[in-house]
Amino acid sequence: MKTCLAAVLLFVMALPATAAAQEQAPNRRAFTIVAADYQFTPNRIEVSQDDLVRITLQSEARPHSFALDAYRIIKRAAGGQSITFEFRADQAGRFEFYCNLTSDPRCAEMRGVLIVNPR
Question: What's the CATH number for 26-117?
Fold first, then answer.
């Protein structure tokens, strides 16, 4: 009986530690961003700090890029192609992403925002 009671007590005491560890574990967030008609869809991504973010950039008819200066990310997808990449959103804040290709001046109009909410 003492052994059973001790096991139950140990289990109950471990619950808060398990819950705290789960709260701190990063979430995995996946987004597909379509680059078409000189715009990103969606053009807003919202995650929590320390989330692992996976982005698939899908470029329609012509090449486009995804540049996110705060995270030192520049990825390019050829027309009709896609590219997938990941990063940890370890900085809270509001960060602009954009197409940095210079071959077509309308690419400069392609803007979006990454919002990283603090934990």
Answer: 2.60.40.420
